[in-house]
Fold:
Amino acid sequence: MRSPPYDAIVIGVGGMGSAAVYHLAKGGARVLGLERFDIPHPFGSSHGLTRIIRLAYSEGSHYVPLLREAYRLWRELEGLSGESILRVTGGLDIGPPSGGIVQGSLKSCTEHGLPFEELDAGEVNRRFPGYELPTEMGAIHQPDAGYLHSETAIAVHAAAARSLGAEIATGVRVRRWERVPGGVRVETADAHYEARKLVITAGSWAGELLPALRPMCRPVRQVMLWTDPLDPPVFAPERFPVFVMESDLGNFYGFPDNRGEGFKIGKFHHLRQEVPDPDAMDRECHPEDEAVLREGIEAFFPGANGPTRRMTACMFTNSPDGHFILDRHPDDENVFVAAGFSGHGFKFCGVVGRIMADFALERPPRWDLRPFGLKHHRPPRVAHAPPDSEGVA
Structure:
């Protein structure tokens, strides 16, 4: 079966891919999205109900211009759909005052003129009684932070793309792609499709579609835990800001009790379990998974240390330096990739989708994307990797 050519094909219609399909369709492209699972689905990096969004960015102040656009695009998507996607609670970047999270957050705020407060542990505990920080900690409070309803956001992006004429096929496994004159061909088990441009937003499966990315996109297993707070009112969104935290026990992140779903916590790097095959990741949650998260709750949020509501496993796909990969394929001018989001990417979905659309539609970039280029991540030999690959979407 041969289908008519498309302007662009997007492989992987999760957080980034659904936004890319939408922005391509919004730009007038004839676009096809191919998703191996459903929309949304619980097998990648974007499920688990919520994801943090924040402007005070300890990962690097160069993200702030992208974040400002991300906020604008999320609000635009809410207006288009009528769905509630972004909830502002304020946010706390917590840790030793001289540590990376506090100092990185402070740098972002001062460089970009963001409103913020620098708080000691006692002030945090008084103002936000769900927190019990030790005296050696401090925090940057930035009032614009909050969380996104991640699964809703994916569904809304996909629906908006379809309303603009995009085609999206689910339950479709991509077997390979290859160059053809004037573009690329993508082969599935039942069909092949041709397009001028190819966008790969396949998350933890990106390395299977682009073997050159395997050293730079390493999936790791993560677990999220929800508990029933012992003191529910202090964990309500109105009283409990989202947080990222650097501590002697590791780096944690968490959320208020969203819509009665429970207090939510995760730990960056969790048990440091790399996932050689994303299809074979252990998706069961075990006592040792809960124990590492309970340690953080007991130490810093004892009022949330109630019964377990649920746990779920997901994958982060880590780049070598923790920064995103947003670039053209080194050997094919018609292929673009967004990958390696390293556990802090979801908040950028709208703006990454716009960037991928700009690439594919040959529009000039709106932001400085040099920090996200492949040359900042890859060993020299990657430039000569073959353009074809076997893989999944």
About this structure: Helices lie at 15-26, 64-81, 100-112, 121-127, 150-163, 206-209, 287-300, 349-360.
